[in-house]
Amino acid sequence: MVHSAAPADGRTIATGLAALAGTAASTLALRGLTLRPTVFTHIHNAGHDIAPQIHLPAPAAPPTEENPDNAHPPQKR
Q1: Is 22 in a helix, a strand, or coil?
Q2: Based on C-alpha coordinates, what's the Rg of the chain?
Q3: Does the pLDDT at position 64 exceed 90?
């Protein structure tokens, strides 16, 4: 509509200005639009308990005659 209504000498500039104005108007209108739902997460805890101690598991017992290391020998197929 802008292109057809503008005088022949300024049609390009008028069309460009109209496109710029439309872009600015839609940017301002859609600025607060979001497609993701708003999720409010309220975490009310005292915080994390950080302890500097290091706890290592007990080492495995060395193999004995009652508990050999090779409990499952390889099988032939």
Answers
A1: helix
A2: 38
A3: no
